[in-house]
Every structure is written in structure tokens, then in C-alpha cells.
Prior knowledge:
Keywords: ATP synthesis, CF(1), Hydrogen ion transport, Ion transport, Membrane, Plastid, Thylakoid, Transport. The chain has 92 residues and is mainly beta. The protein contains no helices and eight strands. The radius of gyration is 12 Å and the shape is globular.
Amino acid sequence: MTLKLCVLTPTRIVWDSKVKETILSTNSGQIGILPNHMPITTVVDIGILRIRYNDQCLTMALMGGFSRIGNNEITILVNDAEKGSDIDLQEA
């Protein structure tokens, strides 16, 4: 079973695909989200989103916002987001 994850910023869709698991940084700590997670809405803290999909892992830097979880769907609305692979370490 999978979850539909959508990560949105004011200007673009950063991620829109099915995933197996996510770990999200919230204002009260990290939460792991698996299929059939109870419905919640939470504040997203500045931090790392970890995504497991197709037996691969991806990290994404999130710059604060909100998240809605329910019905095997996760919608994350943030000020900005960057995939770990897109971050230039020399520039950061």
C-alpha cells in the first residue's frame, strides 16, 4: 500500500507521486507517516523531509508551512522546498 505525497510551494510543485513512507519535521518533533495514518493537520517546521519510494530514499529541505494527512494522502504546503540532490553544497 502507498501514500500520495504532494509538496507545494507558492510557485511550484516540488513532488507529486506515490510513496511508501515519509518522516516529517513538525513543530512538536518528527512524525513518521505510513499508509492508513490517522488524519491530522500540523505545522511543518524548518527541517528535512525523508521520503521512501520504490525502495529508494530521498531527502528534501522544507522551509516551514503546513501539512494535511488523511485518506492515504499527504499534502505539504511550504514557503520553499529543495530536493537534497538539487542543493549545491558549495553555495549552501
